Amino acid sequence: MTPHISAARASIPPNLVSVSDYAEVAKQYISHPIYEYIAGGGADQLTLCRNRHALDKIQLLPKMLRDCTKGSSALRFMGESLRHPVILAPVAFHQLVHPQGEMATAQAASSLETTMVVSTLASHKLEDIAQNLDSGKWFQLYFQQSREFTLSLVKRAQAAGYSKIMVTVDASLHGIRNRAQRAGFVLPEGIEAVNLRDRPPLPQKTLAPQQSIIFQGMMTEAPTWQDIAWLQQNTSLDIIIKGIMHPADALKAQQMGIAGIVVSNHGGRALDSIPSAIELLPKIRQALGPDYPIIVDGAIERGTDIYKALALGADTVMVGRPQLYALAVAGALGVAHMLRVLREELEVTMAMMGTPTIDDITQDTLYQSDY
Hints:
- It is a single chain.
- By secondary structure, the protein is of the alpha/beta class.
- Helices cover 38% and strands 13% of the residues.
- Helix 11 links the parallel strand 9 and strand 10.
- Helix 1 runs antiparallel to helix 13, helix 4 packs parallel to helix 13 and helix 12 packs across helix 13.
């Protein structure tokens, strides 16, 4: 057991029945600074709160007397067969909450036939995690200052059997994380981004007095559309862009031949005061047409949340924080239980809504109200 976490349970307590239960119980297993780092949003957390509020405003409008005896939550997505439309989002440093880290998460993903997106900032080698993944495995990429090193990560992922590269574009800066700062969060000793160990040292840069540490400093490392085009030319793997919020960016990605996008505000952790992904999803779907692959994330905690996202135009959803909460409480067993709860809640919702398959979930089964 490491100082910043308590030993995870070997069983699921009977009163832990929903995904949000894990968020509360996890406080008993994670140190306060780490919990605040995981749970917190950017700045005043307006976007973090809006993510949940936007989902809560949407109501369901069920259709009765439909035959649901041949129902299923399975689907085909981007050339792969998914048992259900829930994907584990890329999340850094799983060892913050459990000694086995991403290895345990991968074990859970495999047991529930769930695609896992492994973070560049994982606390285990991407090759080792891949060996634990029998289900879908995708790799999330943060562009590095060295294109050569960036490409080496992509090549390692391809060699390890990852089928897609998910490029995160909305977190070139860390954002203003006041909640984590107030809690005194620092990365504990022994936790590191092991896949970046061989990263070449950053060159020393001297700024002129009139230059900005942000614009002329940090943002010189941020990727641009030109970098995306370069990556397309240097890998045969499907590329997904994560962090798209503006319909114009979604259209540009589609026109460039990007395989798919994630409509996401980084869980409210990056730029504050922006809309929720779920609010922008219908406009982006309308802009891209019915067939372009779209994933959405942000405050997905219930099967009804998944249903709402699919009805508004998403093909699949990703969950981020819940996997860490579940991992902290009960290790691989907790993550597997969390995924099973989401899948079963979705299937209950589909059955009660009279929509037995994913294709049956349409926007006319939603009712939006300001109540």
